[in-house]
Amino acid sequence: MNCTLTIVRYPKYTGFAGFLSMAFFRIPLMLNRNISFWKLLGCGRNGTFDIHPDWRQWGVLSVTGAMNNYKLQTINYKLIYGSFINWWWQFFKCEIFTILLEPIEGHGLWDGKEPFGILPKQTNYEGLIAVLTRATIRLSKLKSFWKNVGGVASKMDGAPGFITSIGIGEVPWIKQATFSVWQSKESMKKFAYKMHEHAAVIRKTKQENWYSEDMFVRFKPIAVFGTLNGINPLEGKL
Questions:
Q1: What is the DSSP string of 89-109?
Q2: pTM (2 d.p.)
Q3: Is residue 75 one of the residues assigned to a domain?
């Protein structure tokens, strides 16, 4: 089982097409037999939980068998997502960035499911690692959540071992996620559990019961394709 996260950036003045794709892509994804789980995603502006959406940047996360035994030098979006989605991105001249991932550790649910299979909470893997943290925020806790996460987000970019991150979400302000990539599990853990601001937020999530559902999954990055804002942040790292 592999997971693909594709982030597309639309040219200036065509972000409306990304908004429309959240409706138009549902049927081809539902009918795609290669995909066992998928989510259409909006993106935040600053690479993590962000109350301000980026109207030009949108994403698709899928659990797929289409990339098994696939040549990792190239990528065929028609093979993975189907001809309509591939045509749409080409027609609107989107910049496309995709990372192929192997789920290795995790816990929690997404819409009541374990889309990446039953994973151990810990393994011996210590190399380059990607992390997906997602949550459905209780409506009564929205104010407290957004009041506290901004300080943590601003610290991530300068953390030792940090490579890149993308803020993604299914529903604005309510169903939110951060996808981040780190040089090692050790560097990720130091930020998550030893950085004061982040550790304090973790405690508050439990004490104040912010989430009605949450999930934390770690992945081994397998391959990366394309660029985002003209940059491949993982170039030369795989």
A1: HHHTT-EEEEEEEEEEEEEE-
A2: 0.91
A3: yes
Asked whether residue 86 is domain-assigned, the answer is yes
Out of 114-118, 169-173, 191-195, 225-229, pick the least confident. Answer: 191-195
Nearest to 137 by CA among 127, 119, 149, 122: 149
With CA atoms as reference, report the closest residue to 80 among 93, 67, 97: 67
Residue 213, helix vs strand vs coil:
strand
pLDDT digits (tens, 9 = 90+) for 11-32: 999 999 999 999 999 999 999 9
Q: Residues 210-233: pLDDT tens digits? A: 899 999 999 999 999 999 999 999
Number of separate domains in the chain: 1
User: What is the structure's pLDDT at 144?
Assistant: 84
Q: Is residue 156 part of a domain?
A: yes
Closest among 236, 113, 129, 125 to 192, alpha carbons compared: 129
Q: Which amino acid is at 27?
A: I
Instruction: Return the CATH number at 121.
Output: 3.30.70.100
What is the pairing mode between strands 162-171 and 53-64? unpaired
